[in-house]
Amino acid sequence: MVSLVDTHVHVNFPELATDLAAVRQRWQANGVIRLVHSCVSPDEFATLQAVADRCPEVAISVGLHPLSTGGFWSETVGDRIQDLAQSDDRVVAIGETGLDFYKATNQAEQIAAFSRQIAIAQPLDLPLIIHCREAAAATREVLQGFPGAKGVLHCWAGTPAETAWFVEMGFYISFSGIVTFKSAKTLRESAAMVPRDRLLIETDCPYLAPVPHRGQRNEPAYVRWVAETLAQVRGEDLAELAAYTTANAYALFRLAT
């Protein structure tokens, strides 16, 4: 059996939290050996810690999702993220942060929150988990103001040109179940061009379940379908892709063995 790392989950959400023991059994049965639990608000940090207490293979992050910034962002929130990041050695990243301009009107507030979280991550030498939706150019512009910033563009859905921007800047690119969708031809072109030392896989569960589970509740066990699709797209064996994406996850997040 191949070993996989799901680099972006939300198993504390109600869709999965009430069934966590069974969900965990299924991810273990499907070769998922480590998971990175992303954070949408520092208010949920205690629930992430509780998941990690129950499941030692789960590492955690802390941050504020761009769609959570409206009316909530302040420098005090930034201070709280920084304090929490230093409070638990299971914190392996800041995020998820970033920009989401799809329907959102608070772009300046999102940019302020994103910039502050980058500034928190850098002195702590932590990678960023970056959410980027309809905002690739603005995301690149913000990151250019922070030389040396590192991290991953998660649940990536960008064009090959946009993919090239972030690869050139040294960021990892993580693909979710979207890459398995029939309509995702352009995204598969992006997936084919990412260097193997910059590729990651994820579910972003409980959302975006991959084919053949599309439309169902997503869960970490399904990251195998993402890996299988990427291996096909890239002309690689599943075992080969699993080995290097797992190594990449361990390297970026400095996961304990």
How does this model look, in words?
With about 260 residues, the chain is of the alpha/beta class. The protein has one domain (about 5-255): Alpha-Beta Barrel (TIM Barrel), CATH 3.20.20. The protein contains 10 helices and 8 strands. It has helices at about 15, 20-30, 45-55, 75-85, 105-125, 135-145, 160-170, 185-195, 225-235, 240-255, and strands at about 5-10, 30-35, 60, 90-100, 130-135, 150-155, 170-175, 200. The chain has an 8-stranded parallel β-sheet with strand order 1-2-3-4-5-6-7-8. Strand 7 (about 170-175), helix 8 (about 185-195) and strand 8 form a beta-alpha-beta unit. The longest helix is centred in the middle third of the chain and has 18 residues, at about 105-125.
Fold blueprint:
Layout: E1 4-9, H1 14-17, H2 20-29, E2 32-37, H3 45-54, E3 58-62, H4 75-85, E4 91-100, H5 107-124, E5 128-133, H6 136-144, E6 151-153, H7 160-168, E7 172-175, H8 185-193, E8 199-201, H9 223-234, H10 238-253
Parallel strand pairs: 1-2, 2-3, 3-4, 4-5, 5-6, 6-7, 7-8
Helix pairs in contact: 4-5, 5-6, 7-8, 9-10
Give a quick precis of the structure.
With 257 residues, this protein is α/β, with parallel strands linked by helices.
Tags for this entry?
single chain, 257 residues, alpha/beta, TIM Barrel, eight-stranded parallel sheet, 42% helix, 17% strand, globular
